[in-house]
Specification:
single chain; 338 residues; alpha+beta; Heat Shock Protein 90; Ribosomal Protein S5, domain 2; 2 domains; eight-stranded mixed beta sheet; five-stranded mixed beta sheet; 11 helices; 15 strands; 26% strand; globular; binds adenosine-5'-diphosphate; binds magnesium ion; DNA repair
Length: 338
Amino acid sequence: MGQIVQLPDELSNKIAAGEVVERPASVIKELLENSIDAHSQWIKIELEEAGLRSIKVIDDGDGISPDDCEKAFFRHATSKIIDEFDLFRVKTLGFRGEALASISSVSQLTLRTSTGDQAGTELVVHGGEIKGRDKHTKRKGTEITVEHLFYNTPARLKYLKTIHTELGHITETINKMALSHPDVRFECYHNGKRIFYTPGNGNLLQVIQQIYGKKIAQNMLKIENNSLDYNISGYIGKPEITRSNRNFISLIVNGRFIKNPAINKAIFDGYHTFLPIGRYPIVVLQIDMDPYLVDVNVHPAKTEVRFSKEKELFDIVKNTVYQTLHRQTLIPQGAKKE
Ligand code: ADP
Ligand code: MG
């Protein structure tokens, strides 16, 4: 008799959750990505005890139709891609169809959603099992509440840090989302108190000010350039406002926040001698391109990507940063103050 068994869905979802859901901040990242993919213009986040007790994300997006509500919790079930062609041209933040299955397998989750043109749905899922379904009247949009995260995975629960640390990770996640989507209005409440908001008027500099403060916003230089395949835009900090670590470099590729040491290096090369030794710049760099030129299917957290025309990208980043800083130093002293 063979010894290999096909694991039941409940177990494989928990295994996937181990990768996708590390802490409350990762739940928030996935829920915000879903709200953005659903064309939301307003997203409200309500947290209790840094999300350890409860995380609620409310949006005014497309909503989920009654027929799809249960399917949304199946593993590898998605409305965002249908074939291999789409997988290599991903235009949305999500595409793996794993987040809701994973999150609901390690928490007690309530979904309330409506597409606006028919009765809404309420679905309760505990530890991956559907516990209840009801009609729900609600205006267009989706509300997902995640309570008691990791209640059924004690080892993961134990690994969570203090409220302070978890809130730090959450803030970082929301900041990244807000920087990548200045056209979306974000509001975040912690234990009933508003801790963050953005106006959602598309003005990236205002989001930068909201996150880093007025002094930094006033010392950012606008960048804009394009090559054959890449459009780059955003803001780079003047050399006077450097930082002691590279956490202040935000890279956004087609609206997705990513990590990429090679692009960081292109930025540093662009700053060249403008940067004091051991100091790092504040940068928000938006890179837009044909989705075909970037592979986002590298890691479950979707923060690593591979570019197919790297050299062209690194050159345009480096040259644009260099030229922007150089132009700035050529402006006469009196005009600089403006
Ligand atoms: P993915 O985002 O990779 O498709 P998820 O598990 O995150 O997978 O979500 C499954 C599906 O549920 C999505 O494809 C989408 O159709 C639907 N969905 C999830 N969240 C929302 C939301 N806030 N608004 C509208 N639809 C949503
Ligand atoms: Mg998703």
